[in-house]
Write a structure and sequence with these properties.
Elements: E1 2-9, E2 14-18, E3 24-29, E4 49-56, E5 61-67, E6 73-77, E7 85-90, E8 94-99, H1 108-120, E9 125-129, H2 137-152, E10 156-159, H3 168-175, E11 179-183, H4 190-197, E12 223-228, E13 231-235, H5 249-252, H6 257-260, H7 280-286, H8 292-302
Parallel strand pairs: 3-5, 8-9, 8-11, 9-10, 11-13
Antiparallel strand pairs: 1-2, 1-4, 2-3, 4-5, 6-7, 12-13
Binding site for Zn(2+): 266, 271, 273, 279
Organism: Rhabdobacter roseus
EC number: 3.6.1.-
Length: 309
Amino acid sequence: MRQGLIIRSTGSWYDVREEPSGHIWQCRLKGVFKIKGLKVTNPIAVGDRVRYEIEDEVENTGTILEILPRENYMIRQSVHKTAHAHLLAANVDQAILIATLVFPRTSLGFIDRFLVTAESFRIPGVLVFNKQDLLSEDFVAFQQELIDLYESLGYRCLTTTAISGGGLEELRQLLRGKISLLSGHSGVGKSSLVNAIAPTLHLRTQEVSSFANKGVHTTTFAEMFELEAGTYLIDSPGIKELGLVEMKPNEISHYFPEMRDRLNECRFHDCLHVNEPGCAVKQAVEDGAIAMSRFESYLSMLGNQDNRR
């Protein structure tokens, strides 16, 4: 039995990079794999380490027999199957969200759900605001307010422009020596940024529709790329909506750092921070110590509402 790394998933077939030779085998999954009873549309994710056996050396095929224990994984609700989840990636060092304030617009609700999801799996979250060349002065000022907010909460923020190369060196340094999940809406420029950093990859890009102001999916399957020795990037398909998975209502506030710091100050230990008396979180919102946008995102998650707007 051999050991390898999942570097691409196409649904039923997986590209497995053999360790240590680096040879790529096309493998299928044997049997049914479950994650602690969690229903998933894809039992194996890019970044998983697996054990497999060779089926046919001429055809370059194999069978995956075992998924090795994960250090972590990032997951979201499946948009196709109710009550199912979809694995985005496994064994990552950081989760990077590429966001754009215009063309297309990434909502604050989506940004906050991404960060909450990363927090829930103890994965450091990073925000990269792309397409600086399209921002008006007002949007530049608004973006700086957002950066100040998220950096005050402990999240690293970068600004980039793939066309001019602005911020690319900082992004390279951020990625160096880590396994990074790159995510975001379609059209935010993920593939353009990767091509600018690693031109030899030649990832496919497509223009954003000016009619709908929405991106077109260019990444169909999650795939891992080695940018340099020890530096790996997982490019995931564009996400329209980021549904939270198996998160109880009284847990959500634990994944907002500014709320987590105040949970012991609420009068009731099971406070949901909605209409309970003596709520330290609501008081902090009224005092301006917690941003209203973040509190609104929290209420949206509590109500399981759409986060695309």
